[in-house]
Each structure stands twice: as structure tokens, then as C-alpha cells.
Amino acid sequence: SVDVMSEFLNEIVRSYLEIQKKSKVRSRYERCEDYWNFVQTLSSSRGLESVALDESHEKLLKKELETFVNDKSFYERIGMPYRRGILLYGKPGTGKTSLINAIS
Prior knowledge:
Layout: H1 2-23, E1 27-32, E2 35-41, H2 55-70, H3 72-78, H4 96-103
Antiparallel strand pairs: 1-2
């Protein structure tokens, strides 16, 4: 049945994520027709300490991320998808990608 297949696929994803977490390697894949292609290994994950932010912006960002992580039940209760978007803008080389990597 669809439910059995869905649970099976979810278990595969959970197993894969556990392996990735243990190996501490992050990879990028792209969907190509009927399958996923490995594209590249992503740079190592560094924390927010590796990104230069104004102290006020850093505090605001940390508070926002902490609130999001701790409010999963709120999203479930009101029926919203549990996801958060952050819009970044600026000239090339100003740290947008580094900030996203640090957050992830």
C-alpha cells in the first residue's frame, strides 16, 4: 500500500541522514528525470562564530533560530509547514552563502 511504501522510503531517508551525520560530510544532489545525481561535496560545516555579524544582528538571528527550533509544536498546532525562510541580499562576497552554511 501507499502507506507502507511511504514509511519504507522515510526509513531509508532517516538511515541515510544518520550515516551522513556520523560521517560529517554534506553533499549536494540534483534531481535529473527519475533519479538523483551527486553534484559535489559541500564545505565543512562551521558555526555562526565563523561569520562576521554585528552583535545586534547576531543576537537577533540566534534568537530567531532558537525560537524556530523550539516551536515545532506551534507549527503543528496551527497547521503550518515547519519551515523558515530568511531573505539575504548584498553584493557578491559579503558572506550570504557562508551565513546559510553556518545556519544549516
